[in-house]
Amino acid sequence: MRPKELKTWTGGVAQLLALSAGRSRLLGLSQWLQQVCPVDHFVLFVYEGNHRPLDLFDTFPADVRHVYVEDYQVGPYLLDPFYLACTRNQAAGLWRLRQFAPDHFYLGEYYQTYYQQTGLTEEIAFFVDLDDGAKAVLSLMRGTRSPAYSRDELQWLDCARPVVEQVVREAWELRRAQPRPARDLDYKIREAFDQFGAQLLTPREQEIVQLLLRGHSSASVAEQLDISPGTVKIHRKNIYAKLGIGSQSELLGLFIRELAGQDDGGEMHATG
């Protein structure tokens, strides 16, 4: 960024903070960040306790919003590396999705079957700590026609962190005063994930299923569970047979269908 552009960008902070806190200022924030580098989509999710992700702000067109937001909130967020990083209390900062993704994330079925529908090729995000252990994640998404974020772009964006954090926290303070619908509580969704296939699978097989769904390869599963890759292969064969499926893509499909059934209030059970 040249000196003249830098002056315009830093001067824009005053204009940004003059906007009303909440959606107006979040929209202004997205436009201000666009002066540093192009971004195809912004989305701000808040992960709070036992609630499903709250979409506090986004710039998605209406025709694709259901994929990015509504489908995501039904259950796929449980497999999202950013969400999982929040559950591990990841430090605030600017992070790339690939820093948290398992070894086979971009080859795995969550990416191939769900994430790839979004048309994204790269995602970075500001992690912001909120009160009571909640975390906000402001994602900056780029699609297939856009290049990866450069080192210079990441450095400039990191300089914007104090402004991003202030705007996000103010928006959250406004929103948290509003009661959330009872359906936003996701105890059942999390329990469904933890108990997926419990009627048919052993506890060890359930552990393997959860790692596979999150994008771990057989080698990574073996390392995580301190067992041999050959043992993992045997377990996978048994898992597929018990669930009546033939591939990892069918495993993810079964998982998503059961989450959708849970969201509708139905009983969750594996099919054999």
Helical amount: 40-55%
Order of helices and strands: HHEEHHEHEEHHHHHHH
Main CATH class of the largest domain? Alpha Beta
Number of domains: 2
Q: Which secondary-structure class do the elements indicate?
A: alpha+beta
The CATH architecture designation of the largest domain is: 2-Layer Sandwich
Concise synopsis of the structure shown:
This protein has 272 residues and is α+β, with helices and mostly antiparallel strands.
Structure commentary:
It is a single chain. The chain is α+β, with helices and mostly antiparallel strands and 272 residues long. The protein has helices at 3-17, 23-34, 65-74, 81-87, 109-114, 151-159, 161-176, 187-194, 203-213, 218-225, 229-243, 248-263; strands at residues 41-47, 54-58, 93-96, 120-129, 135-143. The protein has a 5-stranded antiparallel beta sheet, sandwiched between helices. Helix 1 runs antiparallel to helix 2. The radius of gyration is 20 Å and the shape is globular. The chain starts with a helix and ends in a 9-residue tail after the last helix.
Annotate the secondary structure layout.
Layout: H1 3-17, H2 23-34, E1 41-47, E2 54-58, H3 65-74, H4 81-87, E3 93-96, H5 109-114, E4 120-129, E5 135-143, H6 151-159, H7 161-176, H8 187-194, H9 203-213, H10 218-225, H11 229-243, H12 248-263
Antiparallel strand pairs: 1-2, 1-5, 3-4, 4-5
Helix pairs in contact: 1-2, 2-7, 8-12, 10-11
